[in-house]
Structure formats: C-alpha cells, structure tokens
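I can't quite decide. Please look over this sequence plus structure tokens:

:::
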Amino acid sequence: MNAGVTHLAHIGLGSNLDDPRAQVSTAIAEIGALPGTDIVARSSLYSSPPMGPQDQPHYINAALAVATRLSCHALLDALQMLERAHGRARDGVHWGPRTLDLDILLYDDEQVAGPRLHLPHPGLKERDFVVLPLLEIAPTLTLPDGESLASVAARLAPSATAVRLDDA
C-alpha cells in the first residue's frame, strides 16, 4: 500500500442477479485490488430473502474488512464504479433486484451524514444479512454509538433469515 494514513473500513456486499455468487466473489477480488487497499478479513457467503419486493431471487451477501488509504468518499466512488462495471443500474427501484450492491458499513469510527454517504450505514443494525457476516469477521466490534455488534446480533437472532452457506 502507498504511504499515508490507513483507515479500517467494513463493506457489505450483496447480489441477486446474474450468478450472485460469482458477482460477490469477483467484487471481493476487485475491492482487494483498489489502490491503497488490502483485505483484512472476509466473511463466508450468506443467503437471504430480499428485503423489498418478494418476487425476486434471494440474495448472496458477504462482508469485508479492508485497510485502505482512500478517504471514505473516494472509497464510495470506487465501490460505485465497481457496481456500474457489474451492470448495476440505479433506476430508483427501492430494494429491487441488483447485480451488485456495495455499501460502506463502517469507516473507522466516523459518523457522516451527507447527501451521498451516511456512516455508519443507516440500516446496519436492522439487517441480519449485514450483521451476521460482519459479526463473523469482527466478533468484538463496538459500533460508533458504543453498542457492541454482538448485542445487535443477539437482538436480531429470533427473527434472523440470513443463512451461512457451507461453500463460502
């Protein structure tokens, strides 16, 4: 990696179109190839039902921890470029099917509320398909608001629908 300050970012990945396992696996490799970015940890793959309209395929999800010298906005730009390269269309359909969805979940302990980026990711604590893969790679993680990720997972456990896949 290049000289400069290194940040720890956690990224959520998801896909439910055009061979979702391959989409997520390829994206993981591409994220690891971003300038000044190294993968620190990667979760197993998880399967989960869609959040929105149920007339779409289940998702394949995963989480990554990366050490990066990119700013949070530069990382967001790079991730959105990868989404576009995978055929992601931002057509305004909320929670619709997608070839690739890459979200910055956490970036150090930063809290950002801007027009393009919210950190921590606003849906992090409500989505088991984010929490479970993240917990796998960061079991002792404490969120910027002081709550442990393990307590978030325990709260979600009774209604969790995300399932860890064996061949991840």
Q: What stands out?
A: The mean pLDDT is 92. Strands lie at 7-15, 37-42, 46-48, 59-68, 101-107, 112-113, 118-119, 163-164. The longest strand covers residues 59-68. The radius of gyration is 15 Å.
